[in-house]
Design brief:
107 residues, mainly alpha, Arc Repressor Mutant, subunit A, 5 helices, 60% helix
């Protein structure tokens, strides 16, 4: 069981801090905001910001999808997948365990 949890949480280990920030914004929005609202200035063609590649990476990790399916476009609503929800829950529990370990070590 522990190995399975490690495999699941490993998908977030491959994310950059910016990708985690985007994932967290999408998670908080719960499908109510468009990509243009969540990632201001997003275009598919803008390779300089790297946001299209970040969204593709999050999608490839099975964490997010456009609610309307298909390609990433500014008017689409990104949502967290069921798998993404599970990863988020495990990430939160893992953070709690780290804090608990630090408290025990300190005192």
């Amino acid at each position: 069981m522990h190995g399975l949890l490690d495999d699941i949480t490993e998908s977030t280990n491959a994310l950059t801090p910016v990708e985690i920030e985007i994932f967290d914004r999408i998670l908080a929005a719960k499908g109510t905001k468009t990509l243009a609202e969540l990632v201001p200035g997003f275009t598919r063609e803008d390779s300089s910001s790297g946001n299209h590649l970040r969204l593709r990476h999050l999608r490839d990790q099975k964490l997010i999808i456009p609610r309307e399916r298909g390609r990433w476009k500014p008017e689409k609503h990104p949502v967290v997948t069921r798998y993404g929800e599970l990863v988020n829950q495990l990430r939160s529990k893992s953070a709690d365990k780290v804090q608990e370990f630090k408290r025990e070590a300190a005192g």
